[in-house]
Structure formats: C-alpha cells, structure tokens
Amino acid sequence: MPLYEYVCQDCHNACELLVRGSERPLCPNCQSQRLEKLLSVTAAPVTGSASLPVCGTSGAPRPAGGCGAPWCGTGGCGGM
User: Fold this and answer.
1) Distance (Å, rounded) from C-alpha 69 to C-alpha 48?
2) What are phi and psi of 51, to 5 degrees?
C-alpha cells in the first residue's frame, strides 16, 4: 500500500498518508480534500556504521542542499 506525502492547500499542513485503492485522502489537521501530492525523496539502503545526516543535530555540519527532510525543502536546513 503506497504511502504518499501531501501538503494541504487550505491549512498548509504537511503529512504522510497511506492511500488504499481509490480512497480520497483528507488532511488530518482540517479534514480538507484539497491536498497536493509532493514528490518524495527515495530511500537508499545504508551499509556500514556511518549514520546519515539529520537536520538539527548539534555540532554536526549540515550537508549542502539540506538534509533531505521534508521540511528542509531544496534550500537547505532552515530554522533548525
């Protein structure tokens, strides 16, 4: 069953929703049906003991272009 990322056009809430068949997803915040499907970042398997960069980790350098978290967008880690 596919898991999709959406942003509500009414309240601007970002969420991930499990959508089955022909279901019409609702915003969990305001119950609006005006959801825009976002492009998701694909996950890649990680091997070894190195950890992935995480937004907001203390002392760790932030990678150029952001950490890949949905709230960071393409402009890099913001506000964390």
Assistant:
1) 22
2) -95, 155
Q: Considering the entire predicted model, what is its pTM?
A: 0.50
pLDDT, tens digit (0-9, with 9 covering 90-100), for 22-33: 889 999 999 999
Assess contact for 1 and 16: CB atoms under 8 A. Answer: no
Q: Which residues contact 58 (CB under 8 A, 6 or more apart)?
A: none
pLDDT per position as a tens digit, 65-76: 555 565 555 555
